[in-house]
Amino acid sequence: MRRPLVILLVTLVTPVAVVAQSDSAPTPDPIAQLVGRLDLERYKATIKGLTAFGDRRQGTDRNRAAVDWIEAQLRGYGCSNVSRLKYDYQPPVTRTGNPPPRDTSRASGGGRYRGIRARTGVNSDSLKQPDARVRALDAQSSTAGAREEVYCTKIGATHPEEMYIVGAHMDGIGWGEAANDDGSGTALVMELARVLNAPDVRTDRSIRFALWNNEETGLNGARAYVEQRRALQGTKDEPKWLGMIQHDMLLFDHGMPRADGTLAATQRPEADVNIEFQTSSKFAVQAQQLAWVFQVANEKYATDYPASVGSHMTNTDSAPFQDLVPAISLRENERGTQIGAGWDPNWHQPTDVYTTYNDADFRLGLNAAQTTLAALAGLTGATIK
Ligand SMILES: [Zn+2]
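Above are the sequence and the zinc ion SMILES. Below is the predicted complex in C-alpha cell form.
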C-alpha cells in the first residue's frame, strides 16, 4: 500500500513546483495586452472618418469613395492581404398590389415584444436633414449595376487554412451620416484589423475582416460573398469558415421608449452589448456556444458594459452564413424585439450623425470591440512576440 501513496504525493507536489516557478516570471496575458491597444479616441476618429462620406448609400460615388478609403486604412494597418468582391446589384422591381399581411405582434427573428413600442421607419425625405452640408453630401441617388466590397485577411501561422470572418456593413441610408448604422460596426472591424495586424501579433488561425456593401437593400453584399466563395472553402483562395461574427449598430442603448414615444437623452446605466444567434438556424447549437464564448470574453475583458446573449439574430449580414457555419451578431440592442420596437430613434433617420452621440454612447461600441477582440484572440490563439 505504500506505492500509491508515493504516486499521490508526487502528483500533489509537482503542480505546486510548476506554479512556484511561473510565479517568479509571470507571463503577461496577451489578450489583455491586445485589448489594451484599443482606444476610445481612435475608435471615434475612425467613425468620424467614415462620416466624411455621408450616408455611404450603395451605388453612389460617395459609397465607392468610402470603399477606397477603407481599403487604404486597412493597408495602412498592415492588413496587406486585401481583396475586393465584385457583384452586380439590380433593385427588385416594385410589386403592385397589397403586400402579404404580416403578424405585427411578433418581432422579426422570432422574439416577442414586451412593453411600450414606438414607430420605426426609413427616412427618404432630404429636407428632413437640417444640416445643408450633410444634405449636399447625400444628394446623389443610387444607380443599379456593378458593386464592390473590400476585405482583408490576417494569415494564421499554423492553421492558415481555417478562418473566422469578422464583418460589418459600410453602406447606410436615411439622409444622415450612418454614424451608428453602421459606421460604429465598420470602425470596430477596422480597429480590430489594426490591432491584430500589428507586426508583433501572431495568430494560429486566419481572420478575415469584411466590410459588406448593400446591407440596407437586403444583405446583397454578404449574400454575394456566400454565393461566390462558399464552394471555394478549403482551397488556397478561401480558408475554411469556422464562424461568422457580424457587428451592426453599437452606440445607442437608452432603453425602452416612454409612453409618449420619447427616449432618455443619455445612455442608460444598464446598457449592454447584445450578442445574438438564431435558434432556427442549422448551426444553432454551435452558434450558441460561440455566443457564450463572446459573453465570457466580455465579462473578463470589457471595461464598462456587460453583454447578454439572445436567440433571435435577424436582419443582418450574418444571416446568409447561419445555415453554413456558426454565426452571431453584436448590437446595441436586440434587433427584433428592441430596435424593432423603436429603441433607437436615430435608426435610418437624419439624426444618425456623428454629433448625436457622446462618449458614453461611443464607449458601448468600444466595449463591443473589446469583446470581439478578446474572444477572437482566444479562438485564434493570438500571441505577442
Ligand atoms: Zn445596419
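Confidence is low (pLDDT under 50) at residues 4-20.
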